[in-house]
Amino acid sequence: MRLVTTSSVEAGTILAKTIYNETGQILLSEGVELKESMIQRLNSLGISYIFIKDSQTDDIEYKGTLSDPIRRKAIQTINSTFLEIQKDSSISSSFVVEKASRRLSELIRFLMTELGSNKELLNLLSDAYTYDNYIFTHSLNVTLYSLALGLELKLTPKELETLGLGAIFHDIGKLQVPIDVLLKPGRLTEEEYVAIKEHAEAGFQILRKVQTIPLLVAHCAYQHHERIDGSGYPRGITGKDIHFFGKIIAVADVFDAVTSNRVYRKAMLPHEGLEILYAGSGTLFEQKIVEAFRLAVAIYPVGITVELNDGRKGIVTGQNIGLGDRPIIRIMEHKGEQVPPYELDLKIELNVVIAECDTAF
């Protein structure tokens, strides 16, 4: 299979990976021949990239960190839990959240087990999802990225569980933001931007009243938009005053935000998201955490076409543990000329680097 931009696909191309929406319903099944109307529909949904079948890469298979059924079940758990909080918050917010936290704590322990037993790099190319429910998918992805970072940074199981709960609840305050503001495709007004920014403190106020949740979890919601140079919000605090977990979730939050579909822009690919993190390393984000992210996450997904600094071109076929930016590549071209395919491991060939990605088909 090959990963390509949806906009570059032509009618008649065969889809290689089933596309689901957030509720687990199939939008398009693996093996379907794409019609022009289907491609237009995917583009209208903001689905930037898809996996397609290609005779040269039939044996290449993308495997996400979580299987499709586990991922959908996790999202549905978050979905139903958050909707319950939103619906019943007027009755007794702390009671409802306390009840929900038990369910989400169980989910986090399950995800910790899944990540701990999976020896592959974290690999999340999000399924398609509807814009009105993106908070739930985003909460799961941020939790997975945060836990992967926590594992890379050698946190204890207890610390990981607290971090995971902080990550899964980090955007709970957005349940109080008007949906038309959250999903506005154009530029926000000053008043709307203020309403968005209030979700960090709103989340803190919701969570701090829940006795069964560590206060640190509330501070994760409070601090995930703070930046170490003081340029963040809601309080503009600097590095020494931001908890380490808040700094971890900040990195996970930004990376997932830029690599996921949004109503106001299309998704970036992982290597582009990492460039955003590197640009802010040492000023916005703690350098140690950004470096850990590079080691823990698959920056170049299996199936993506890459060009190397020596003119060779190929498809990523595998990952190297602890080296998210040094994958295994099947070389297929050299300076524009077709060559017999062969494998090149960037873990071994240290003088070769990826110069760019080509996602047109």
From TrEMBL:
Family matches, as InterPro entries: HD/PDEase_dom, HD_GYP_dom, HDIG_dom
CDD domains: HDc
Keywords tagged on the record: Kinase, Transferase
UniProt cross-references to SUPFAM superfamilies, sorted A to Z: HD-domain/PDEase-like (SSF109604)
PROSITE patterns the UniProt entry points to: HD_GYP
Domain HD-GYP stretches: 113-310
Coiled coil, from the record: none
Gene Ontology molecular function, alphabetical: kinase activity
Top-rank lineage group of the source organism: Bacteria
Protein name (record): Histidine kinase
Organism in which the protein naturally occurs: Cytobacillus solani
Lineage: Bacteria, Bacillati, Bacillota, Bacilli, Bacillales
